[in-house]
Amino acid sequence: MASADSVKGMVEIAAEEGIDILVNNAGILRAGSVVSTSEADWDQVINVNLRNVYLCSKYALPHIAKRTDGAVVNIASVAGLDGLRDSAVCRPDSPRHVESIEGLIRRDALLAGNP
Predict the structure, then answer these.
(1) If the chain, 115 residues long, is cut into consecutive pieces of 10 residues, what is the mean pLDDT of each piece?
(2) What CATH number did the domain enclosing 65 receive?
């Protein structure tokens, strides 16, 4: 997904039939150190791996909440926990990576009603 408008449009189309479940399963990787990773690659990884989870959840949750048995499933790579040696974006010692993963976990807890 490239923009909030495209996600919103996708959800509106799906909502015509009702939304029972959202599965966030997109992810990409760009190898490279902090020095060699371009800002464009960094932005693309963060947008695909994190921003899209936020956008899809933001627009789908109001429809899922109308159901009594709706669900959100977030699927991620083990690289999200263990990191990858040659990736500035997916290294567990990268502050941005740690903040992103922790933020995603906290967001999931809030969505589940466990603040």
Answers:
(1) 88 95 84 80 83 91 89 75 57 53 62 55
(2) 3.40.50.720
